[in-house]
């Protein structure tokens, strides 16, 4: 490794992430085969295709992979419900396996085959759904095999980076006794994922948008050197994260783009200047084009895997964008046509990512507390204390990280936006809640430490631990369970005047006023808590407002706290769903994008109303 590539490895050495690039480990490829109901797609035919597909892939991959073809999988129902295009939007699994879904249907006298891959080493999905068709029954397995092979992307771990935008990647399976030349060649393109610690849960993977690596050589010694192409500076060298990458199934073809003005509902950019270079950037090869009335532009030449595109107005550069060529559909590129538009665009991109990270931190901290409560039921107070301290340490680190990013966003906004404020309200609510949970954990740790130090009776130690769990549940707005635990403590002999007073206050505040109030509470805790997508939220939003009004009329100040906690995470889910849409190309996506804009606005209004209702009243004097 060149000495200039060493510093990133040194900078990353202090993290707890599993940095093993698995150079000696073969890939585990699970192909999930689903055939639609049809008289011609018989059970025997399904078994035949399964066998032939497995044998074909295993022969092609050899010792590089262990291949399984399955007809059942726990996630198949979810994939069928959402469709291959959106099925992987919320997947975060990093189990190391490659999961490839293959759907076969018989339509209009032919066999339609669709496939898409999710890679559990990087947390990345192949960028498009592959389609092919054959009328030959005997070639169905081969058609499916070719689609799987096209997107079977070698993966790797970034182990070196220098100031000249060169990356060294150590390849998974790179030191197995197999030739990698078929699976990764010079000029091949790789997408990049950032892997970060996430407390006691598995690390999280986030795709680094508009960042691609391009191999500058053939693999050697299980490694490969790549050139970095990016729209926004990814800041790889100074990060303490782990970066993994996956080869994309790119093709040779023309560049097709649709330029739109960045915004919630993007509009086509007409007459925009576009310069297209091959990735070797030879000046003689530059194509100069302009977008049509729909914002579309297509190159005259074909490009190998990746093109470098400069977008300008009046000769002034607006953006430099690396464009991978993965299929024949136009790639949407959102542009801010304004001074320092790319810097402003990056600022909003970072803001949205910060909000999503805050939501993930809330999910993680909630899972920590649930796990801690479950642990306390089965283990000693000493074990619970050690786990609680570890949870607290992780939460403190997360709060520090999101707080630092908040400061950076504020400083950048002050410089870039001048008098126009950057809306950080959603993230600020998340940080406030994270700090509240930190205080709850600190109180829990102090309580358990004091109990272990001063109490000798094992029964009383356990009862005090249960009381600590109840306080944690209150912090999650799980008041019914908290009340049950407080009662258990008191009925078990853990008499405490303050605890009894707290139980009395909770029971009074939690009391149901009538059936309408009970239904409103049930709606928030169960029906609204189950909403995950824009379409599910839209159908429930009017009832959600009504449920809050009922709670306010009943002077219920507990149930709305659960509503706020749920909404903190839902705003980030909506932003992530919007990111996966293509409203400029698809009417369904356009309608969904419009729905997300309306729901986000309504949710923020509702959150403000709920927060105002829950705000302590100022007392005169």
Task: Describe what this molecule looks like in 3D.
This protein is an alpha+beta fold and 621 residues long. The chain has 4 domains: 187 residues, Double Stranded RNA Binding Domain (2-Layer Sandwich); 86 residues, Immunoglobulin-like (Sandwich), CATH 2.60.40; 169 residues; 100 residues, no CATH class. Helix content is 44%, strand content 24%. It contains 14 helices and 20 strands. A hairpin with a 7-residue loop joins β10 and β11. 35% of the residues are buried. The N terminus is likely disordered.
Biggest pleated-sheet summary: 6 strands, mixed
CATH classification, class level of the largest domain: Alpha Beta
CATH homology-level superfamily of the largest domain: Ribosome hibernation promotion factor-like
Calculate the terminal CA-CA distance, rounded to whole Å: 71 Å
Structural class: alpha+beta
Q: How much strand content do the residues show?
A: 15-25%
- Ranges where pLDDT stays below 50 over 5 or more residues in a row are 1-15
Question: Any idea what the radius of gyration is?
Answer: 27 Å
From the coordinates shown, what is the CATH architecture of the largest domain?
Answer: 2-Layer Sandwich
What is the residue-averaged pLDDT?
87
The percentage helix is: 40-55%
Number of domains: 4
- The tally of helices reads 14
The name CATH uses for the topology of the largest domain is Double Stranded RNA Binding Domain
- Which of globular, elongated, flat, extended, rod-shaped describes the shape? globular
